[in-house]
Structure prediction request, 257 residues.
Amino acid sequence: MKLNTRAQSAQSTNNNSPIVLVHGLFGSLDNLGVLARDLVSDRDILQVDMRNHGLSERSPEMTYAAMAQDLLDTLDANQIEKATFIGHSMGGKAVMALTALAPERIDQLVVIDVAPVDYDVRRHDEIFAAINAVTEAGASTRQQAAAIMREQLDEEGVVQFLLKSFIDGAWRFNVPVLWDQYSHIVGWQAIPAWQHPTLFIRGGNSPYVTEAYRDALVAQFPQARAHVIAGAGHWVHAEKPEAVLRAIRRYLSETVI
Prediction:
């Protein structure tokens, strides 16, 4: 599947590989915009809507093998031979899965607040309930949707994040499939070791990358380097963008594959 994309050309001439930015569950290509706006100064940028999100095609399948194939198809469609990938959460797992499918197409790899493990936990049931409540109420504006979601969700940041995908009275993600395929989204199939330096950025307050997952992470990414952003949660790039960008730029400048 060729994904819906937004391409931006670097503001300065360079020989660096383009950067592909890959969002997480319930997101869209806009979600990593804070990174795109900075990194486009010296890198071509390609932001993607993952399958069943944004304006990309719908599919009944949400496995990481399928999502990795989508990324590969999108590289081919955009005539990109090799790229640097930065993925958050579900997008981080998708770019990790790509290392097993097409390792030769990856230049550098940054994974934001997710580990290559099966979490076997449901963290999003309240979000699904809030989303469905908006649909069942027939809300037509973001203001109406926000009021309904606030009855279900305590975190205003999560409400605002979800509202970005509520357009003209409809959700821009495929809610029934995301619910049906949720075990695949939080799950993981172990992959062969990726023998190149990989940056893992995590929020210090996030439960997604902890010491409990260290062995699984190192087994699949033996040259992993970790950078913890203190005082940040799962949406670390939104909460502490400058710190995240400093870590990414340091890695990009020091790492050659």
Notes: The CA atoms of residues 61 and 224 lie 29 Å apart. The radius of gyration is 18 Å.
